[in-house]
Amino acid sequence: MAYHHGDLRRTLLQAADEAITEHGVAALSMRDLARRAGVSHAAPTHHFGDKAGLLTAFATAGFEQLAKALATSRLASNSFIELGVTYIRFATTRRSLFEVMFRTDLYHADDPGLLAARAQAADALYAAVSELPGGLLAADAPDGPVRPARAGTAEAAPPEVRRAGLAAWSMAHGFATLWLSGAFPDRDLDPAEAARSLFAELTRDYAP
Predict the structure, then answer these.
(1) What is the C-alpha to C-alpha distance for residues 156 and 39, in angstroms, rounded to an integer?
(2) For residue 40, how many other CB atoms are within 10 A of its CB?
(3) Cα distance between residue 95 and residue 66, in whole Å
(4) Which of 58, 68, 71, 201 is the most exposed place for a label (fewest CB within 10 A)?
(5) What is the pLDDT of residues 20-76, one digit of tens each?
(6) Around 190, how many Cα atoms within 13 Å sit in the side-chain half-sphere?
(7) What is the 8-class DSSP label of residue 104?
(8) CA distance 50 to 29
(9) Alpha-carbon distance 21 to 153, whole Å?
(10) Residue 96: CB partners within 8 Å, gap ≥ 6?
(11) What are the φ/ψ torsions at residue 28 (nearest 5 degrees)?
């Protein structure tokens, strides 16, 4: 089966998604990906270099998708709580991506493309901390419509915004990790709904 260059990359990443979903990242092999994609055994290595290179591209795609989801949620919902719910929904519906994205031992964590995608996701979070209703520093929220997060928002965040952003991320990521591991109680609930209720309860201590 022949693929154009761009199609091969997409096909291999889709194959990686399927393989990790079925057997976990530890069992991932370049030979299996080639078989799933219907290409030569050498094609994945030729395209990505090695398994770490493949997982770098995989994690980058995950951060790009997360950044897009957070940015869309931020603009559409105008709600800090819904931003957290979006994070949970991403984690529980894109599990293979989520579980690789934060395993920096698996990929080239200094890859420029990965760092840029990760920064976009962080910008959406840190902008929401002080700008969205329900944000941990919402008392300082400006009036008017929500604007797209500016590039570099996370990096330039003052200490209080950074602390609040880390607290919010810890809550959402902790919930997602507990849910995915099966340790969270009340498994009959929808994870997004459970998260929405929990985040609303927690933010009562911070919102004015």
Answers:
(1) 45
(2) 10
(3) 12
(4) 201
(5) 999 999 999 999 999 999 999 899 999 999 999 999 999 999 999 999 999 898 888
(6) 7
(7) T
(8) 10
(9) 33
(10) 16, 17, 20, 21, 25
(11) -65, 135
Nearest alpha carbon to residue 8 among 93, 42, 28, 29: 42
What letter would DSSP give residue 102?
Answer: T
75-106, pLDDT tens digit by residue?
A: 888 888 899 999 999 999 999 999 999 999 99
Write a three-state SS string for the chain: CCCCHHHHHHHHHHHHHHHHHHHCHHHCCHHHHHHHHCCCCCHHHHHHCCHHHHHHHHHHHHHHHHHHHHHHHHHHHCCHHHHHHHHHHHHHHCHHHHHHHCCCCCCCCCCHHHHHHHHHHHHHHHHHHHHCCCCCCHHHCCCCCCCCCCCCCCCCCCHHHHHHHHHHHHHHHHHHHHHHHCCCCCCCCCHHHHHHHHHHHHHCCCCC
Cβ partners under 8 Å of residue 15, min gap 6: 33, 36, 37
Q: What is the pLDDT of residue 36?
A: 92
The sign of the dihedral angle between the CA atoms of 16, 17, 18, 19 is: positive
User: Any idea what the Cα angle at residue 149 is, between residues 116 and 70, rounded to 5°?
Assistant: 75
In the block, tokens 């920064």 appear at: 119
